[in-house]
From TrEMBL:
Keyword Metal-binding (UniProt): yes
Domain of life of the organism encoding this protein: Bacteria
Biased composition (Gly residues): 549-563
Boundaries of every 4Fe-4S Mo/W bis-MGD-type domain copy: 3-59
Species: Streptomyces composti
Pfam families: Molybdop_Fe4S4 (PF04879), Molybdopterin (PF00384), Molydop_binding (PF01568)
InterPro entries registered for this protein in UniProt: Asp_de-COase-like_dom_sf, MoPterin_dinucl-bd_dom, Mopterin_OxRdtase, Mopterin_OxRdtase_4Fe-4S_dom, Prok_molybdopt-oxidoreductase
The entry's keywords: 4Fe-4S, Iron, Iron-sulfur, Metal-binding
The protein's name: Molybdopterin oxidoreductase family protein
Residue segments, region Disordered: 335-355, 537-579
Length: 747
């Protein structure tokens, strides 16, 4: 063994921090600093640092489980478990038709898994009913970005641009808790003389560091953006030349903004007019500025319009598609970006192609070796798919998701899942959703498998296998390979992730998210490559424009290669660290390759005429405003020591010690009205259910609002309360605001 240290990336959030893994004395792996990866420069949060704890055999699944006639999940062999799944899926299809079988994926799956899952649904099952939990995460920003710029990539510029801009408006984002190592970009921004404006109903740890914090009522940031745009126009701060030369549709958008007087916006949002003016001054005075959004504005029943309102502000001030300026979305899940590009979304084919586009269907069908007419059309969005379980959709294959905790109106969704004829779940641990399955398959995880992810920057990264999986554990790719064979498709589902990636490259070629110029070898050598990266270098120019660059060095064959990458190749020994044959290889001398595209839109937007689109939007209320019965607003979010539904992080002692359970954050005035003291159990009740958790009394939250983190199951499950009202464009549920009442719980 040559290498004892494997450079790789964290399994959790979209920052995809670089880390080194090395064998530990106890047979697991140890995390150490990987200073050569520029995004986090060695820094990790507690989740990343403790991630190996979930590799331990006492924590994770190591044998398939099959539900017995008596109703219990019992250990079984792989052959029997796979046979049972194939039988469940085939039987449902035969009885009720192909669309009675659903597939639900996750934003944590690697690109290879997401690609294979989408192909499996359309080619093997022939179902249109596939979507994934990333729909709950960034879909409103994706929809708004696509309609404004013609293309959606979380950040159209690297994080390294943030410290060099003049002002950042951070809307509904709390990186201090969600991705702590990224906070340094905002700290450096301020050290360099720039300013940070945070818009959040809560005074979060991020808001505490801001030069200006605006705390609107939850669900009113669309009005806030319109109020800022109104002031920009009224104060003569628009960039008329930019609007003329690089945009379309300004007049209607201008008119919509002018209908939102600052005083009217103050009444809607609760943010005083002088603070609106101060935000406009901070944003407009510097030469460069950015707006970054996250789940706050996006997880609303008007999330797409809310993000459009922020993009309109960026366009009107001439900030998009210019160096050190622009609009970006801070994506959330580890592969939230790549997961939505390669075909597990209901309406998409690989390469971010549209399933409704005949040319896209032809291209992908040719790569897949099938008739384009055999590909089903778009299916239901995530919530709609979950809501159809047990009725239209009778069997479900689920990978990398835990909707019993993470879906809105979770008690109802749990009932829908329980009413399925058949449920198969592939997971690392026995999550709350896996516990309801007929068959559970134990699958490999980050350190035990090679694969690619795409970070919030649009940087495609190589996560490398560092340790052999425990005996009895296989990869998701192996599961799809075996199921496809059992369902009559012998070829087209390789278990080697690099082989899958090579096919993904061809399927994505020519699409908006073009990965065809990216190889495993390049990813290993270059610390990631930004898409789009076509196979053929263009004739013109600079790396920023997407032209060819020569790469030096010598002696690498085409195509790259990580021959030992498949988790289903025989393991060396537990705790062994895989050799990486490409670490020391250098690119071929003089070869011209596309350099990737760190910065998008500098010359033109990805629309037909190259101009960005203003989209006129107006304020509208959240789907469920407070009333006499439910007089308080609930908003939900995260804490630093837990991740998403907590399926992995709730199994890590150190993280549980830091964040042991749910809580209800409420203002002292509300607590006094209830007669609740710190730590007292309080009940939060919405039209969908009741959750109980200890009170955490703080002035960080508005008096008309309570906050709950959503990482836990049981009686403190925040998503029991949340409203599944959907955005009409993105089909994103309104996680961020619903009407509740709060009650003291008496013994
Ligand atoms: Fe980095 Fe996110 Fe992992 Fe924390 S959870 S170490 S911020 S990638």
């Amino acid at each position: 063994m040559q290498n004892t240290v494997t450079p790789t990336h964290c399994p959790y959030c979209a920052l995809q921090c670089g880390m080194n893994l090395a064998p530990a004395a106890d047979g697991t792996v140890e995390v150490s600093e990987r200073a050569d990866f520029p995004v986090n420069r060695g820094a990790l949060c507690g989740k990343g640092r403790t991630a190996p704890a979930v590799l331990a055999s006492g924590v994770r699944l190591t044998t398939p489980l099959v539900r017995s006639p008596g109703g219990a999940l019992e250990p079984a062999g792989w052959e029997a478990a796979l046979d049972r799944i194939a039988e469940g899926l085939r039987g449902t299809r035969e009885r009720y038709g192909a669309d009675a079988v659903g597939v639900f994926g996750g934003g944590g799956l690697t690109n290879e898994k997401a690609y294979s899952l989408g192909k499996f649904a359309r080619v093997v099952l022939g179902t249109s009913q596939i979507d994934y939990n990333g729909r709950f995460c960034m879909s409103s920003a994706a929809a708004a970005g696509s309609r404004a710029f013609g293309l959606d990539r979380g950040l159209p510029f690297p994080l390294e641009d943030i410290p060099r801009t003049g002002c950042v408006i951070l809307v509904g984002s709390n990186p201090a808790e969600t991705m702590p190592p990224s906070l340094r970009y905002f700290t450096e921004l301020r050290e360099n003389g720039g300013t940070l404006v945070v818009i959040d109903p809560r005074r979060t740890r991020t808001a505490e560091q801001a030069d200006l914090h605006l705390a609107p009522r939850p669900g009113t940031d669309l009005a806030l953006a319109l109020g800022l745009l109104h002031l920009v126009v009224a104060e003569g701060r628009t960039d008329e030349r930019y609007i003329r030369e690089r945009t379309v549709g300004w007049e209607e958008t201008r008119a919509a903004a002018m209908a939102h007087w600052p005083e009217y916006v103050e009444r809607i949002t609760g943010v005083p007019v002088p603070r609106l003016r101060e935000a406009v001054r901070l944003f407009c005075e510097p030469e460069h500025a950015m707006v970054l959004t996250a789940r706050g504005p996006e997880q609303q029943s008007k999330g797409t319009d809310t993000v459009s309102a922020w993009i309109n502000l960026v366009l009107a001030t001439g900030r998009a598609g210019r160096p050190l300026s622009g609009y970006g979305c801070l994506t959330g899940q580890g592969n939230g970006q790549g997961g939505r590009e390669h075909g597990q979304k209901a309406d998409q084919l690989p390469g971010y192609r549209k399933l409704t586009d005949p040319g896209a269907r032809r291209h992908v069908a040719e790569v897949w070796g099938v008739d384009p007419d055999s590909l089903p059309g778009p299916g239901r969005s995530a919530y709609e798919l979950l809501d159809a379980l047990g009725t239209d959709v009778r069997a479900l294959l689920l990978m990398g998701s835990n909707p019993v905790v993470s879906a809105p109106r979770a008690a109802h969704i749990e009932q829908r899942i329980r009413s399925l004829d058949f449920l198969a779940v592939c997971d690392v641990v026995l999550s709350e959703t896996a516990a309801l399955a007929d068959v559970v398959l134990p699958v490999t995880q980050w350190a035990e498998e090679t694969g690619t992810t795409t970070s919030l920057e649009g940087r495609v990264l190589l996560r490398r296998r560092a340790i052999a999986p425990p005996e009895g554990v296989h990869s998701d790719l192996y599961v799809l390979h075996e199921l496809a064979a059992r369902l009559g498709v012998e070829k087209g589902f390789p278990t080697d992730p690099e082989e899958v990636f090579e096919e993904l490259r061809r399927a994505s070629a020519g699409g908006p998210a073009d990965y065809s110029g990216i190889t495993y070898r390049r990813l290993a050598e270059e610390n990631g490559v930004f898409w789009p990266c076509p196979a053929e270098p263009s004739a013109d120019g600079t790396p920023e424009a997407g032209g060819p660059v020569p790469v030096g060095g010598g002696g690498v064959p085409d195509g790259g290669g990580l021959g030992d990458a498949s988790p289903d190749t025989p393991a060396t020994s537990p705790g062994a660290v895989a050799e990486d044959p490409v670490r020391t290889a250098a690119p071929r001398a003089g070869a011209a390759v596309h350099p990737g595209t760190p910065r998008l839109f500098l010359d033109r937007f990805a629309t037909e005429d190259g101009r960005a689109r203003f989209v006129p939007v107006s304020h509208r209320a959240i789907a469920e405003e407070p009333d006499e019965e439910y007089p308080v607003l609930l908003t939900t979010g995260r804490v630093v020591a837990q991740y998403q539904s907590g399926a992995q992080t709730r199994r890590v002692d150190e993280l549980n010690a830091a964040a042991p359970g749910p809580f209800v954050e409420l203002h002292p005035r509300l607590a006094e009205r209830l007669g609740a003291a710190e730590g007292d159990p309080v009940a939060v009740v919405s039209r969908r259910g009741r959750a109980v958790a200890p009170a955490r009394i703080t002035t960080a939250v508005r008096p008309d609002t309570v906050f709950m983190p959503f990482h836990w199951a049981g009686e403190g499950r925040a998503n029991t309360l949340t409203n599944p009202a959907l955005d009409p464009v993105s089909r994103m549920p309104e996680f961020k605001a619903c009407a509740v009442r709060v009650e003291a719980v008496r013994p």
